[in-house]
Design a protein that fits this description.
By secondary structure, the protein is α+β, with helices and mostly antiparallel strands. The protein has helices at residues 9-15, 23-27, 30-38, 42-64, 133-140, and strands spanning 2-8, 75-82, 85-92, 95-103, 107-113, 123-128, 144-148, 154-158, 163-172, 175-185. The longest helix is centred in the first third of the chain and has 23 residues, at 42-64. GO terms for molecular function: holo-[acyl-carrier-protein] synthase activity; magnesium ion binding.
Length: 188
């Protein structure tokens, strides 16, 4: 299973006041709040943890089909940051979801899988966020076509073989990201 989330940092700065009273406590555990408040760039840490939690949620939603999101129940553990990259594990109940993140001055993007080694097998396409991002992807991706399952989940079809691949789509502000893997076939 795959999940991904991204935040356009410029748009987040204008849309969300994470410093308002009670905001952090609704979304982040006390340990995560400490990471945020002690970070060199607290706003970057807010959105890094947010994208990790959201990407983890998308993996779990794909498994369970339950669309209930309680951010504090997705706990970021073992966070390691190294310049423009970060890794962590998001724990939810008994599940461990592995996260890899890219951090730039424009956006933060996190991908999530159930198996750590699958993080290295992902194909990632960044594009401009537009109403037609799906058509843009289909034009620019040789032989791969982005569509949706009957339940509305993203799906990639490999044109030459007809194979159905699990996919995850995220968009915010100026950016869109589509993540898939040839090794992670869809059950549908």
């Amino acid at each position: 299973m795959i999940g991904n989330d991204l935040v356009d940092l410029r748009q987040a700065a204008t849309e969300s006041n994470w410093q308002r009273k009670g905001y952090l406590g609704k979304i982040y555990t006390p340990e995560e709040q400490e990471l945020i408040l002690n970070a060199a760039e607290p706003s970057v840490m807010v959105w890094l943890l947010w994208t990790m939690k959201e990407a983890g949620y998308k993996v779990l939603n794909r498994i369970t089909a339950i669309r209930s999101y309680s951010p504090q129940s997705f706990i970021c553990c073992g966070l390691i940051t190294n310049g423009s990259q970060a890794t962590a594990v998001v724990c939810h109940d008994e599940r461990r979801i592995y996260i890899k993140s890219e951090i730039s001055s424009q956006m933060i993007h996190s991908t999530a899988t159930l198996n750590k080694q699958d993080l290295e097998e992902l194909t990632l396409s960044y594009m401009d966020n537009s109403a037609d991002y799906r058509a843009d992807f289909n034009r620019s991706s040789r032989g791969y076509f982005l569509t949706k399952t009957s339940s509305g989940l993203p799906l990639i079809i490999h044109g030459p073989t007809g194979r159905k691949l699990i996919a995850s789509v995220s968009h915010h502000g100026k950016y869109a990201a589509i993540v898939y893997s040839d090794s992670l076939l869809s059950a549908g």
